[in-house]
Specification:
- The complex is a heterodimer of chains A (200) and B (276).
- Chain A has 200 residues and is an alpha+beta fold.
- Chain A has one domain: Nuclear Transport Factor 2, Chain: A.
- A 5-stranded antiparallel sheet of chain A has the order 1-2-3-4-5.
- The longest helix of chain A has 23 residues.
- Chains A and B meet through helix 3, helix 4, helix 5, helix 6 and strand 4 of A and helix 4, helix 11, helix 12, helix 13 and helix 14 of B.
């Protein structure tokens, strides 16, 4: 009888340890990254001790350090980036950065007070998609689905896109730029000028 | 009777129209790098309708949604969202059946029965705590499962972004939704008004800032909304077909090309990454 108990314990304990290890590794570095990012972002937004301006600056800086804006800037221009002149590229990157901060960096504002819950992640090609939800305030079942597209280059993790309820913000931006160019003689200068107007 | 026959004839025409247009999916894939990527042959007309809808929204819908959100407490607004969701469960169950999803149809029906009774006419959602979770399904999605192509993008007066497939679905819903078969004509009209009117205001009140933001920051608001609509419908259909949204992944594969192209990065633009 004792032999059996011993055998049972000697099988159970390694199994238990194994389960613990696999549980710990269940959180991919990308999931941890989004968890930290969203917790930090929400704690900044719900901080009542700093002014609105400081809040905005802190929020922008955490967003800017978590995304790959260079890549996003090029991606939303798509074909037009490849044919742009060096001068156009420089002007565009500058103006897009401001435009991006004004429009996207403030988007998460609406979700303050609610918590981002990480569901899991899956690898898709070179990207990792981190799946998460936000539960609407005052309910426990009305949810918003958020999917984060992550690029992990040897541990240097950056957010590439945010998909809200099936809508990719970056693809929407890209289609908007393409439509603008299609309706404006494919003239990148006009797009830059328009962005400058929106920024001011 | 004549009325419904006309509508059925109209639906039939729309189906034909949808069938004639080529599959937008293949167009998008072929022209990954070419603008515009969305099938929108009626863009000129659509833009006019879109401007009209924007004015309608600005003068009537948005102010109503603002007042609604300002006056009605959050608790009550959440109850209304739940009750609208509950009213959509019978038609979801019908569509689950039409899509051959028997267990999903069972879940939607159970949700409706439980939430209409224990959940007091659907204003609470006890079914979800029993693990009964269901996504809304409409006839447009059923048609997508049946392989009907969406057809070109169209903007309907008052109703907004649509496609021949989704508009057909919408008309079918107004004919076949079990919720509209109950009670006398006046009851049905009350139901219709409640769902249409309150549904629009409920949706709009949840998205005031999002649309304001989008409108203020867009250099082409029409294109932004078009993209939102198409992406949203695409992801709903691919959920039904369980294929996953591979279109999105295809588009993002393009990053690879761009990454190789480091031809110019402005001096001021290098973003400082905080080391963690």
């Amino acid at each position: 009888m004792r032999k059996y108990v011993k055998k049972f314990i000697s099988t159970i304990i390694p199994l238990f340890v194994l389960i613990q290890i696999s549980n710990a590794s269940n959180h991919s570095p990308e999931e941890d990254f989004i968890k930290t990012f969203s917790d930090n972002a929400i704690s900044i937004l719900s901080n009542t001790e700093i002014s609105e301006q400081e809040k905005g600056e802190e929020f922008t800086s955490i967003v800017m350090s978590s995304i790959d804006l260079n890549l996003i800037s090029k991606f939303v221009l798509s074909k037009a980036w490849k044919s742009a002149t060096a001068d156009q590229k420089e002007r565009y990157l500058k103006v897009f950065k401001t435009y991006f901060i004004n429009s996207y960096a403030n988007k998460l504002n609406q979700y303050s007070g609610e918590k981002v819950k990480i569901i899991g992640s899956e690898v898709k090609g070179k990207y990792t998609i981190v799946d998460s939800i936000i539960v609407r305030e005052g309910t426990d079942t009305i949810q918003i689905n958020l999917k984060w597209r992550i690029l992990n280059r040897d541990g240097n993790i950056k957010i590439i896109d945010l998909n809200i309820e099936g809508i990719s913000l970056i693809i929407a931006q890209r289609e908007e730029f393409q439509s603008f160019l299609a309706n404006n003689d494919s003239d990148l200068n006009k797009l830059i000028l328009k962005l400058e107007n929106i920024n001011n | 009777m004549i009325y419904s026959r006309t509508i059925i004839a109209f639906i039939f025409c729309l189906l034909l129209l949808g069938g004639c247009s080529s599959n937008p999916r293949s167009i998008e894939l072929d022209s990954k790098l070419n603008a515009p990527s969305i099938s929108d042959p009626f863009e000129a007309v659509n833009r006019v309708t879109f401007s009209f809808n924007s004015i309608f929204d600005k003068t009537i819908v948005r102010p109503t949604a603002l007042v609604y959100r300002g006056v009605v407490p959050g608790f009550v607004r959440n109850r209304i969202t739940y009750s609208l969701d509950n009213l959509s469960m019978p038609v979801t169950a019908v569509n689950n059946l039409l899509q051959g999803e028997l267990s999903k149809a069972g879940i939607a029906s159970s949700r409706f029965i439980i939430n209409s009774t224990i959940g007091i006419l659907g204003i609470f959602d006890p079914a979800s705590s029993f693990g009964l979770v269901s996504e809304n399904e409409d006839f447009g999605q059923t048609l997508a499962v049946w392989g009907v192509p969406s057809g070109p993008y169209i903007v309907l007066p008052f109703l907004g972004p649509s496609s021949p497939r989704d508009f057909t679905g919408l008309l079918s819903t107004s004919l076949l939704d079990p919720m509209y078969q109950i009670g006398s004509d006046s009851n049905q009209n009350a139901f219709r008004s409640y769902r249409m009117g309150v549904g629009v205001v409920d949706f709009r009140s949840q998205n005031i800032e999002i649309f304001d933001d989008l409108q203020n920051n867009s250099l082409d608001y029409y294109a932004a909304v078009r993209s939102f609509y198409n992406q949203s419908r695409e992801s709903q259909s691919s959920n039904n077909l369980e294929t996953g949204s591979d279109l999105e992944d295809d588009i993002f594969d393009e990053f690879e090309d761009l990454e190789l192209d480091d031809s110019y990065v402005g001096p001021d633009i290098e973003i400082e990454y905080s080391s963690e």
